[in-house]
């Protein structure tokens, strides 16, 4: 294999080189070629179809150097989204930094569940607790143009990213961003729906996480405490006091947490759990009596 700094290296050869490097990691081996391709696409700023149409195109020395640096970062476990600074969610573009969780496809189930329950409401008031990158609030703003949305997070750095994403997706005038510990800062307000993708991983599970999650994503947004239920134990009663009658609480939950969450939601109406594409209960939905 020719050296990465050979200025005659083609697109196809660069993808092969990157895949070979990433194959050195057991955690990345099963997606090494896909990751190498995605990183090179970012360097070249070309769509997927065009990249393969020009496999013989030769890269410049600067492009090769940038690509090598990105592959090295990926090999160390850094998420691609933090390397490129971008992630799509619900068909919308988002900027992501190490100050926020990487938006995941599973969280789209939370957005879909909220839309299904609020789309007939003329002007729903929605609170997004732990907004992070703002992906849930912004997706809801796009889907529910008459909604009034408040996005809450205890992290000032996360709110900065969320505000940038709202501007990027042209919904800044539709969302109010507030620094808050859960719902504390809006305790005098009422809502038709409260949505949240809160921290739900137990501290003891840290070692079982992939390197890219454990070492790079913000611990504040991942770990809830000794059991993983600590945020739910606070959020559910707070939400019950602020929701309007017949208002909705929708929360993403972790693997194997269904029964525990069901216990915490005793006394609510219409408690249900929505599975993800793997059949794992992913979203808890409850209606206030």
Main beta sheet: strand number and arrangement?
7 strands, mixed
Low-confidence stretches: none
Q: What structural class do you assign from the helix and strand content?
A: alpha/beta
| Strand fraction | 15-25%
Supply Rg.
21 Å
Q: Any idea what the CATH architecture of the largest domain is?
A: 3-Layer(aba) Sandwich
Number of strands: 11
Query: What is the total domain count?
Result: 2
Summarize the helix and strand pattern as letters: HHHHHEEHEHEHEEEHHEHEHEE
Kindly describe this structure.
The structure is a single chain. With 289 residues, this protein is α/β, with parallel strands linked by helices. It folds into two domains: 11-76, Helicase, Ruva Protein, domain 3 (Orthogonal Bundle); 86-287, Vaccinia Virus protein VP39 (Rossmann fold). It is 39% helix and 20% strand. It has helices at 11-22, 32-44, 48-53, 61-75, 80-84, 108-118, 135-143, 156-168, 211-214, 219-222, 230-242, 258-264, and strands at 86-89, 92-95, 125-129, 148-153, 175-179, 191-196, 201-202, 223-225, 243-252, 269-275, 281-287. It has a seven-stranded mixed sheet, sandwiched between helices. It has a two-stranded antiparallel ribbon with strand order 1-2. β1 (86-89) and β2 (92-95) form a beta hairpin. α1 (11-22) packs across α2 (32-44) and α2 runs antiparallel to α4 (61-75). It is elongated and about 70 Å long. 40% of the residues are buried. The mean pLDDT is 95.
Give the topology, please.
Layout: H1 11-22, H2 32-44, H3 48-53, H4 61-75, H5 80-84, E1 86-89, E2 92-95, H6 108-118, E3 125-129, H7 135-143, E4 148-153, H8 156-168, E5 175-179, E6 191-196, E7 201-202, H9 211-214, H10 219-222, E8 223-225, H11 230-242, E9 243-252, H12 258-264, E10 269-275, E11 281-287
Parallel strand pairs: 3-4, 3-6, 4-5, 6-9, 7-8
Antiparallel strand pairs: 1-2, 9-11, 10-11
